[in-house]
Amino acid sequence: MAPIPKGGTVAVTGAAGFIGGWVVRRLLERGYRVRACVRNIDDRVRTDFLKGMPGHASGRLTLHAADINDDGCFDDIFKGCHGVCHVSHVSTYDDHEYVRRICDHVIESVSRSGTVNRVIVTSSTAAIISEADMQELVRRPVLYEDRHPDEQNPKRTPERGHGYAMGKNIAQRAFSDAAELDGRWDAITCCPADNLGPIQSAHQKDMAWQHIIEQMVLGRYEQTGAYRPWMTVDVRDNADCHIGLLESVSVKNGERYIAWSTDVRKVEDICAAIDRLLPELRHDTPIVTDPFPDRVKAREAELRAIWAGCELRNDRIRAVVPVTFRPLDESIRDCVESLLAVGKVEPRRRPSFM
Ligand SMILES: NC(=O)c1ccc[n+]([C@@H]2O[C@H](COP(=O)([O-])OP(=O)(O)OC[C@H]3O[C@@H](n4cnc5c(N)ncnc54)[C@H](OP(=O)(O)O)[C@@H]3O)[C@@H](O)[C@H]2O)c1
């Protein structure tokens, strides 16, 4: 199918979120018309930052109310759009029937629009690396687009937390299969890694990796699950990847692309980086605490060695999208500065002797 025309109209679901908000801003900066889909337009806490973007006053950016749990909520919004960035979360990933139902009605709206050429489905690197048996990462340590987690492992259950990765794979297939059948649009999946970088609105500090940075700034610091090092992408680069995939003449329906810099950092070094990058802040670097049960702690050396043996690749996205991934230090610095300036976070500081 076709890439979207430059300056065309793009709908963004989950537009008030950390990633969606940056997709909206970058689309505007590149001259697109944007329809930002949010649950509640009148929720000033979540939407004022969108209304303050250049483009809103002129009407190039419009806000639209849509609760993803309401079938057909995107029917009117997608009509006339050339592209859709489907960034939104859903209410749960553990109920796979529910995930399929949500995909089906979003797909219906795309098909009914008659105008959408391309949909970017936001997945996650969890859909690439999240294994129920960590030995799978030893057997297949190269982390790239064709790597899928072992979906048949009997230990893979929502109760054990594997619903997210499987829910994301269900969504990828649902969109790709539907696009294949329809023939008028294509679906490209973008799998971002751990997003860091600046928040644009205070409410965004309460989620995901930027929330962990907030906790570090406040003086609380916990080990990351399964001792995994952070595998990151700057949220601005991730947004550029989404837009690059909308524009690319090389991508094909059903393909997926990983958005990560391949910069890997041990969790111990992330928090320490705050003082290194912003010494004037006098951040009182907290000590990392390990909340895991003893059976996990006993495997620490083994798990760290497994992660150290993994090889991250981003060859594919760099071949089709003109993106230069920022170094992680820049993402950490900008994240911390935005938490202070936008999120009004009060850092824990060392005493001053001045
Ligand atoms: N953050 C990461 O590091 C990361 C990594 C890999 C993949 N991802 C994926 O990227 C996407 C966005 O993540 P994010 O970090 O930007 O999350 P986020 O900040 O929590 O934003 C997600 C948005 O989804 C919307 N949403 C949630 N439930 C909804 C519902 N029932 N109906 C309508 N909208 C709903 C919310 O909209 P309202 O604000 O309007 O309520 C929210 O703004 C997700 O699909 C996530 O799985 C994120």
Strand line-up across the major sheet: 3-2-1-4-5-7-10
Question: How much helix is in the residues?
Answer: 25-40%
Main beta sheet: strand number and arrangement? Answer: 7 strands, parallel
User: Which ions, cofactors or small ligands are bound in this entry?
Assistant: NADP nicotinamide-adenine-dinucleotide phosphate
What does this protein look like?
The chain is of the alpha/beta class. It has a single domain, classed as 3-Layer(aba) Sandwich (Rossmann fold). It contains 14 helices and twelve strands. It has helices at 18-29, 44-51, 75-78, 96-113, 126-129, 135-139, 163-182, 208-218, 235-247, 267-277, 294-297, 300-308, 315-320, 328-341, and strands at 9-13, 33-38, 61-65, 83-86, 118-122, 142-143, 186-192, 194-196, 230-234, 256-259, 264-265, 311-312. The strands form three sheets. A seven-stranded parallel sheet has the order 3-2-1-4-5-7-10, with helices on both faces. It has a three-stranded mixed sheet with strand order 8-9-11. Strands 6-12 form a two-stranded parallel sheet. Helix 8 links the parallel strand 8 and strand 9. It is globular. It starts with 8 loop residues before the first strand and ends in a 13-residue tail after the last helix. The protein binds NADP nicotinamide-adenine-dinucleotide phosphate. Residues 14, 16-20, 38-39, 46, 67-69, 87-89, 91, 122, 124, 192, 194-195, 204, 207-209 line the site of NADP nicotinamide-adenine-dinucleotide phosphate.
